[in-house]
Amino acid sequence: MQTERNRRGFKQHFVERQHLKLSDLKTEAENAGLRNKYLNKTNIPEYPKPEFHTRLLKHETTGSALGGIRKDGGFRNPYGGPLIWWSLAVGPEELKDAEVRLLEKTFPDRMEVEDAEQQSFLWRFATSPAFVETSRLGTYRFTFPLQEVLTAYRDQFCLGAQPIMRMYRTVLYSQEVMHVVLVHSPTSEKEYSQYPFLSDRPDAVCVYRDGHFIWRPEAMCGTHW
């Protein structure tokens, strides 16, 4: 586990080439001697373990960066790096769909009346900034269909070939865990070959399948950690 400060001055700890689940992240932090008051909690209550199917990406930015996007007619790293950062956009519809899948898995024989009573419960646990519809990194937010972004990237940078997805890193902030997926052109395969391909395991934190991302978060509620 390595430690650095990002460009906004926030301290972050990260593990390269892996998407760590909560239990593995605790072990990694302990081995690295990292003291984090959230990871050290042992009395975490039970919480829902949903599966979000997400087809939207969001890019949040400041007013000054918005001017640069207009001038360039597109997105780029303002610091000159090769990566542009996007996040999954998880809104009310994705939350509702995740509830249905979770209920069908947990209570396969439930009655229609029970189904109505059990609806709309997941929002109580979705207190992470990942579920907030307002931008937390700036005044402006761009939201695009995932396939639209991937298609534009394919046509502009991949010579029509399909982009490659890899596990880039797991980042631990003071109250947040971020799992980063690297998307790159086949022409950059040698440059990024040290990063494993994005997993399709049924227990993986993040999976790309059938044109959408599947995200399986842990410890969603602020009262959990």
What can you tell me about this protein's structure?
This protein is α+β, with helices and mostly antiparallel strands and 225 residues long. It is 24% helix and 23% strand. The chain has a 4-stranded antiparallel beta sheet with strand order 1-2-7-8, with no helix packed on it. The protein has a 3-stranded antiparallel beta sheet with strand order 3-10-9. A hairpin with a 5-residue loop joins strand 1 and strand 2. The longest helix is centred in the middle third of the chain and has 15 residues. The relative contact order is 0.21.
Task: Provide a compact summary of the structure.
The chain is of the alpha+beta class. It has helices spanning 22-31, 63-72, 92-106, 112-118, 146-157, and strands spanning 2-5, 11-16, 52-54, 56-61, 87-88, 140-145, 164-172, 177-184, 206-209, 212-215.
